[in-house]
Structure formats: structure tokens, C-alpha cells
Amino acid sequence: MYANSGYLHNTLADFEDHTRPLIVLSSGTYHLRTRQILNTFRPIGRKDYQLLYLASGKAHFFFRGQEEVLTAGHMILYRPGEPQRYTYYAKDQTVVYWVHFTGSDVESILAHYGLPLTAHTFYSGTNPEYQQLFRQIIRELQICKPCFEELLSILLRQIFLQVQRQLLEAPRANDKIQQEMETAAHYFNENFSAPISVEAYASALHMSTCWFIRSFKQFTGMTPMQYITSIRIANAQNLLETSDYNINEIAAIVGYENALYFSRIFKKHTGSSPSEYRKESRPSSL
Question: What pTM, to 2 d.p., does this model score?
Fold first, then answer.
């Protein structure tokens, strides 16, 4: 199992803080690959809020004793004092991100962005930007650059804003088209490192390429190739942060045969070259 996390002031303590409107306390990710099962059970919940995002695979959650199996693209919101029970299985290839937060104005902020006030779960889409935002939150908690606490609240608000966009756009989409675009997004997430022909994929759905691209962009906010590139860059960021693979190896792993081309694309999306990004995200290696 791969795990990466960051904690405000390096404390794992569970607490409330009403000194500011929104305060990020901790964030992390689990990639369940080898460990067979991971259980979480907090019968009296926590003092803070927790938001979980299923980036891939699925997970088993229990609400009022009833099991609910959730798939990639879903988020789960726990409020203070709510019992928490959920399980990840390796066979499901679960990848999950989480963030704990508190503050004096959390409820009104959640309401402002249209997050459900009563439901624990909601579909937020499989936009790779979620993973990038979560990773940036984790990195800021680990590195603690100047003004990082303010940036943390801004990054969390960006996640809320992406959710709001998805919730506002979803009712407009035809159910069948939405299901096909969800399937396409899942396929791209599972096969991003392989050569992907958007034209061939659209043809397999008996759609014109233009219609598929337009429908996919309406569903995700990006064209299929922009979406695939975002997944590749997000995975490259993860490898640069956590592995010792060199740049050529990482380029090949995420789907680029030409490392120079990969470096150009990476810098265009992140503002840093792969080597610069690695140094910035792993200051202890300097």
C-alpha cells in the first residue's frame, strides 16, 4: 500500500479551531495495491470535518448500518461527531484522497458551493484536477512555505468549486451520454500510459469524433486529450514526489516515449521542469 500525507504543524491531533473561517488540518492519499484490506471505524467520529475522494476503484461505506459501495468519482463528507466506518479492498484497486478541515464558517462555505447539506455521498466526477489539488494540499502541509495556511484554504475552496461545477452541470446531461462519458473517463484513467486514439474510441461508440469530444468536454470540462494529459502529468507528479525513477523512466511509465517532449508538456502544465518539480517537492533531498 502506498500512503502519503501531511499534517498541520506535524500534529495528528483531532480538534476544532474557530479562529479562522476555514482551516485545513491534514490531507493524504492511499493507493491500495498489495495490502488486502484497510478498515476505518470511528464510532463517535471526529471533531473536525472529513472529505474523501475516490479517484479510482471502489470502496465500501456504512451509513446507519447499511453498506453502500461507491465507485470512482464519488466524494464522501463527514461532519463532526458523525460515526465513520468504511473499508478498502486491494482487489478493487482503490485510490482515495482525503482532507480534514475545521473553522468558524465551514457550514456556510459548504452551502455557498452547493455541497449537499444532508447527504453523506455525492458524485463529483473523475476530473484529474481533483488529484492535483489534493496533492498540492499534501505538499503544502509537508513543506510549510510562507503563507501556506492561507493557500491551503484556497486549494480546498478550489476543490469545492470543482464539485459545484459538476453538480450544476450534471442535471443538463443526458443520462445515456453521461454514462458513456463516465465509462470513457474510467477507460482513460485505466489506460493513460498506453497509446490512445480518440478517433478509434469514438468510433467504437458509434459516435463521430467531434460529437464525442464535445460531449466529453461538457462532462469533464476538458477535451479527451487534455484529460489524458492531465492524468499523465498527475501520475508523473506522484512519481517525482515518491520514487527514485529518473526522468526518462517516468516519461515512459506515464506514456511518453520522448523524454524531452514529456518535459515540455510537464513544464507547460506545472510551471516547473520535472527535475525542478522533484527538488521543490522533496526539499530534504537537497
Answer: 0.74
